[in-house]
Write a structure and sequence with these properties.
Blueprint lengths: L1 E9 L2 E10 L2 E11 L3 H10 L7 H8 L4 E5 L8 H17 L7 H17 L3 H13 L6 H4 L4 H6 L1 H10 L4 H15 L1
Antiparallel strand pairs: 1-2, 1-4, 2-3
Helix pairs in contact: 3-5, 4-5
Length: 188
Amino acid sequence: MKKYILDINSKGANAQFVVTYKSGRFLRLELKRGKLSSEKQWNRLLTLVPEFQKDLTLVIEQFGPKGIAYTPAESQSKQSLFDRFNAIFMEFYQYKNGLSYNYTGIDGRATKSIIAALQKICADDAECIATWQTVFSNWDALEPFIAKQMALRQINSNLNTILRQIKNGPDQSKRQAEIFADELRKNL
């Protein structure tokens, strides 16, 4: 698989896309940042992404002077574990809240601590990343109190609880206490 970064900077359009080719054929187009301001621009985007990887040079020659640039994307293996963890979290936070996360130094220390904790229980970095992704893909399975705590420092301090709840499911003791209290009220 080969990925390219497509930068569009022309006539009210300012966006960056990741274009993926597999076996020389177009596979995927992902919006990385920015926006296109009209439906016409979205329709023209199809002319900027050729079906075959070999046709990229033609597109670059034709549209390069008009504010279009293709650059090969860096390999994900070159990206640090810290950066990958942050990217996964930022994507999750944006998805859940519709807002970007205000990242601080405290969050950086929390991320490093989370990475260290996961490296102790995982075989390698790939498994650490998979575990981190699993945390967020199963976030809705957490108890509401824990699920509301979405700051990295809170995730760090609750990491053991989060991993346990994802592995075993939420604690049932609270639910059993509620059932017992309801039965007691009925009998009184």
